[in-house]
Amino acid sequence: MKIAFYTTKPYDRIWFEPMAEGYKMDMIFLDAPCKPNTLNLAEGCDAICIFINDQITADMIDRLCEMNVKAILLRSAGFNHVDMEAAKGRIHVLRVPSYSPQSVAEYAVAMLLTINRFTHKAYTRTRDFNMSINGLMGTELYRKTVGIIGTGKIGQSMIHILKGFDMKLYAYDLYPAQGIDVEYVDLPELFAKSDVISLHCPLTKDTHHIIDKQAIEQMKQGVYLINTSRGALIDTNALIDGLLSRKIAGVGLDVYEEESGIFYEDLSNQIIQDNTLARLMTFPNVLVTSHMGFFTSEAMQAIAIETMENAYALEKGMELVNEV
Ligand code: NAD
Question: How many other C-beta atoms can be found within 10 angstroms of the C-beta atom of residue 238?
């Protein structure tokens, strides 16, 4: 089997390359993202392997089918970047449904602890021997209220960790989980009661801009917001208004609705064209990171193994347990 891996960085290759021999697969590693004009690079391949910012449109699926590519292997759990309607019955889409939810949950907590105690600001100050702590007064998490939106694998891991801070937890999910010790409430109640809101649901038609102007209006004054799920869960312009009015005290964003083409790239010498992102960066109480909640050695290894298992099952005609 021959696979073209798009959008690969050195930290992807170190996990996949050693597996090529064992799985007897031919791997082509491409720096390029998967786009209409880079699809030809997969000519002669049985599958392509893509990451979260490779948008696969209906036209691209038509072209992949013409090229006789049989599968799209996702190095992710989320599949909102693939036109699933167009793919249905024509090309297999195989994902990695779970790869260390703890990695993302621990990262979400790290973001929260950063924005509520300003450790990002303290770090840069002390590097310059500016030992002043003016303006860095934080707030405790102890006995504060958290609202978790989405109580799947990552949301549940988050709940488990935050209980250790003795926080009061509320949750909202379309499909509440059984047997977890959390009180489910509807969204308006969650917004009204939470000192901290953390997003752990997938991006769907229903959850697009689940945090918009109306949602922010219902939130507590001084709320902290953490998004490690997908950027488009938040209407960024409404978020900026919420920060300007000081309704929102701090934001941790590991994802951004227009992150494609920006995140994972070194643009430090370039003129940034995205005014919204540039504005976000000016707030001292906003922490933006480049979609790296998953980025631990444990998760990377799990992604590589599961992706190769998906390819192997396809090649051998076995049951495709991770088919979307
Ligand atoms: P999961 O499928 O285990 O859980 C998602 C939960 O969201 C489910 O309980 C589901 O019922 C719920 N849900 C679905 N639609 C909803 C709605 N309209 N309102 C409220 N809840 C809804 O997924 P997971 O593994 O916990 O991952 C959650 C999200 O985290 C993924 O969708 C992905 O977007 C994101 N993610 C981010 C990173 C990162 O590096 N930052 C890594 C992995 C996953």
Answer: 18
251: Cβ below 6 Å to ligand 1? Answer: no
Per-residue pLDDT of the chain (324 residues; tens, 9 = 90+): 999 999 999 999 999 999 999 999 999 999 999 999 999 999 999 999 999 999 999 999 999 999 999 999 999 998 999 999 999 999 999 999 988 999 999 999 999 999 999 999 999 999 999 999 999 999 999 999 999 999 999 999 999 999 999 999 999 999 999 999 999 999 999 999 999 999 999 999 999 999 999 999 999 999 999 999 999 999 999 999 999 999 999 999 999 999 988 999 999 999 999 999 999 999 999 999 999 999 999 999 999 999 999 999 999 999 999 999
CA of 92 to the centre of ligand 1 (A): 22
Smallest CA separation from ligand 1 atom 27, residue: 154
* 291 a catalytic residue: yes
Which residue has tokens 């102007």?
213
pTM, two decimals, is 0.93
Ligand 1 atom with least separation from CA of 101: 25
What lies within 8 Å, CB to CB, of 90 at 6+ separation is 61, 65
Please indicate whether residue 319 is annotated as part of the active site. no
